[in-house]
Each structure stands twice: as structure tokens, then as C-alpha cells.
Amino acid sequence: MKAVTLRLLMLSLLAGAGSLGLSGLAGAHGDVTPQPVDTGNLKKLGSDWLDSNPYRGNGDAIRIGHSAFAQNCARCHGIDAISGGIAPDLRQLPTGEEGDAVFQGRIRHGSIRNGVTYMPPFEGILSQEAAWAIRSWLDTVHQE
């Protein structure tokens, strides 16, 4: 019963943030500043977003992605991507290019429904390299 009440409270708070005009900011993150991700060991990808993950299976990308997820995504999606129910369980994101397309759309553009920011856009905040590193790590924790 407490978990349901907590979820309803959190959804209510998120809805309130949208109605206060905070949805254009990293509103779903409250006053938490996104953390930089050091991708210096990874091949540079340029400014045009790729359609599929160029780092799939890359050990450096997986390590960087795990750290980047912990610093920038775990607040909502849970430690090690084990969701507490408020945000989607990213361990169930489809694998391969199908999942890449879903991931890319959401991380770049976020999710806003009925004026409420459920996930802020990270394009321009996280680099393409950082985003694909996170996706590389998510592949390693995938569950059906």
C-alpha cells in the first residue's frame, strides 16, 4: 500500500512541476544537475546522430555507460536500471537496432505528455558518445 501511495505522490509532484512551467528545464530531475561523462577513450562519432549503437559490446563503452547511467539516469530509472515503478524498466528495452531507435528518440527528445515532462531531453546535455555508451551498458543488463 505504501508503494502505491508513494507512486501517486511522485506522479502528482511531477504533474505539479509541469503546471509550474518547469517542464522546459530538467524538471523531471528537480534541482539535480546532469553530470558530465568522460568519453575520451571512445571513438568520436561526430555531430550527426547514428541510427544504431556503434559501441555495442565495447568494454570501455560499457564501463563508461554504467557510470554515466548511475550519475544521470538512476534517479528515475533505478540503480542498475532496476526501476521502482515510476520510470520504465530499461532492462526491458528491446535489443539491437529496434531498441537503439527507441533509446535514441527518448534520450535525445525526452518524453512530454499533456504538458508534463516525464523525461527531459538530453540532446545537447549528454554527447552522442555518452548516450551510446549508456545504451551499450543497458544491453548488458537486458531482461525479457
Automatic annotation (TrEMBL):
Descriptive protein name: Cytochrome c-550 PedF
PANTHER family, per database record: CYTOCHROME C-553-LIKE, MENAQUINOL-CYTOCHROME C REDUCTASE CYTOCHROME B_C SUBUNIT
Keywords: Electron transport, Heme, Iron, Metal-binding, Signal, Transport
Superkingdom assignment: Bacteria
Signal peptide range: 1-28
Cytochrome c domain: residues covered: 60-142
Keyword Electron transport in record: yes
